[in-house]
């Protein structure tokens, strides 16, 4: 992984939340709240119904410490209006911490609410969304925020941004180093009741994030070590938790660990073309983010490898090729000495996994070969080890319609 004969590129590491990881760790919630907290705001979707026993334990633990709570329900991706309304309702309510429990939408919603509770009355999250007219930098002041994911996928519990929808087709991020959650509780038992189709798409998204950040041009030895550990864990767990071991706690721990690492590596090493296409696709069509990433990763990997092979004389391209081979070796158990074989097997593995996990195609959500221009206009290769042109990007999308 680290060539001892080479120097190391400079890198920054912004840190992670305090992490409480392990089955049953939900019981640590009271411990990670700010000392003296008297009132907290939960941001969640259907957690009380889907994990009724766990919710009862949380409520009892808070009650035993005389900690009161409010609940803001989120059943869709967070919008500007939703965030503003929740913040206005609770701005003067003495909220000592925001606790998000749920999937990616709850994580983003809670992160944005915690960031907005310290702003002036009447302020709107719209002002702090990157790339919007009238954009203002956020001070970073926020109410302490605890993230408790119930899906293994986005890694949002490790990152400093929240994606907020301005309209159905226009989403932007609020972002600040201080928005990295203060604490994250990763209790894999909470992910077991997740539907298989969600486990498949979100888990494949996590694997995609690990692969893209590992081969990223911004990767460091630190993110490489984390990404490889995550890829190993995802290789062991992703397929079985979606098929014949859907209630196996140990395998859900492996997947939750992989997902957590993917959040750290994407935040520090960046992502590639899959996510460069996912942003505009998700904005223009009603395709869940996990489905987009899962459905594209095999085809993007194949086309990236074709391009890298053409450029192998180039040192950077050779490095990218070798890294893909390492991923192929881990996922397939093939000897990494056989670089060519590992790359071919990697593509075959990802294609087979796409079938085994029954990942939908883009056409299932209304994407057609005739309506790709707006997607391609807004797409980019991000930190991909190669730059694919618009023609190849179009072919990738068409192959998955
Ligand atoms: Fe993703």
TrEMBL record:
<dbReference type="InterPro" id="IPR056798">
    <property type="entry name" value="ADH_Fe_C"/>
</dbReference>
<feature type="domain" description="Fe-containing alcohol dehydrogenase-like C-terminal">
    <location>
        <begin position="200"/>
        <end position="380"/>
    </location>
</feature>
<dbReference type="InterPro" id="IPR001670">
    <property type="entry name" value="ADH_Fe/GldA"/>
</dbReference>
<keyword id="KW-0520">NAD</keyword>
<dbReference type="GO" id="GO:0046872">
    <property type="term" value="F:metal ion binding"/>
</dbReference>
<dbReference type="InterPro" id="IPR018211">
    <property type="entry name" value="ADH_Fe_CS"/>
</dbReference>
<dbReference type="Pfam" id="PF25137">
    <property type="entry name" value="ADH_Fe_C"/>
</dbReference>
<feature type="domain" description="Alcohol dehydrogenase iron-type/glycerol dehydrogenase GldA">
    <location>
        <begin position="19"/>
        <end position="188"/>
    </location>
</feature>
<dbReference type="InterPro" id="IPR039697">
    <property type="entry name" value="Alcohol_dehydrogenase_Fe"/>
</dbReference>
<protein>
    <submittedName>
        <fullName>Iron-containing alcohol dehydrogenase</fullName>
    </submittedName>
</protein>
<dbReference type="GO" id="GO:0004022">
    <property type="term" value="F:alcohol dehydrogenase (NAD+) activity"/>
</dbReference>
<keyword id="KW-0560">Oxidoreductase</keyword>
<comment type="similarity">
    <text>Belongs to the iron-containing alcohol dehydrogenase family.</text>
</comment>
<dbReference type="Pfam" id="PF00465">
    <property type="entry name" value="Fe-ADH"/>
</dbReference>
């Amino acid at each position: 992984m680290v060539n001892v004969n080479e120097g190391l590129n400079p890198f920054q590491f912004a840190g992670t939340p305090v992490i409480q990881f392990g089955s049953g760790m939900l019981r640590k919630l009271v411990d990670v709240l700010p000392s003296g907290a008297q009132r907290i705001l939960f941001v969640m979707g259907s957690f009380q119904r889907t994990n009724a026993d766990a919710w009862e334990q949380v409520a009892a633990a808070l009650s035993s410490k005389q900690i009161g709570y409010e609940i803001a329900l989120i059943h869709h991706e967070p919008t500007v209006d939703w965030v503003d309304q929740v913040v206005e309702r609770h701005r003067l309510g003495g909220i000592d911490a925001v606790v998000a429990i749920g999937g990616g939408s709850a994580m983003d919603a809670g992160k944005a609410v915690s960031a907005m509770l310290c702003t002036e009355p009447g302020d709107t999250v719209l002002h702090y969304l990157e790339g919007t007219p009238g954009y203002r930098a956020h001070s970073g002041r926020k109410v302490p925020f605890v993230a408790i994911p119930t899906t293994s996928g986005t890694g949002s519990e490790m990152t400093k941004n929240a994606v907020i929808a301005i309209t159905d087709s226009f989403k932007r991020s609020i972002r600040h180093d201080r928005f990295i959650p203060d604490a994250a509780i990763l209790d894999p038992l909470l992910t077991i009741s997740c539907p298989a189709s969600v486990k498949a798409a979100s888990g494949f998204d996590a694997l995609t994030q690990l692969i893209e950040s590992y081969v990223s041009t911004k990767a460091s030895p630190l993110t490489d070590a984390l990404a490889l550990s995550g890829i190993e864990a995802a290789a062991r767990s992703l397929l079985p938790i979606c098929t014949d071991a859907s209630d196996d706690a140990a395998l859900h721990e492996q997947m939750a660990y992989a997902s957590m690492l993917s959040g750290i590596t994407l935040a520090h090493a960046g992502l590639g073309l899959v996510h460069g296409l996912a942003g505009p696709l998700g904005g223009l069509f009603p395709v869940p983010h996990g489905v987009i990433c899962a459905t594209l990763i095999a085809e993007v990997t194949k086309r990236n490898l074709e391009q890298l092979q053409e450029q192998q004389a180039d040192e950077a391209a050779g490095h990218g090729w070798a890294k893909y081979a390492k991923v192929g070796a881990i996922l397939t158990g093939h000897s990494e000495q056989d670089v060519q074989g590992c790359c071919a097997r990697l593509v075959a593995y990802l294609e087979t996994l796409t079938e085994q996990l029954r990942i939908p195609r883009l056409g299932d959500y209304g994407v057609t070969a005739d309506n790709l221009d707006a997607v391609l206009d807004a797409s980019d290769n991000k930190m991909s080890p190669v730059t694919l042109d618009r023609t190849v990007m179009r072919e990738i999308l068409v192959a998955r319609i």
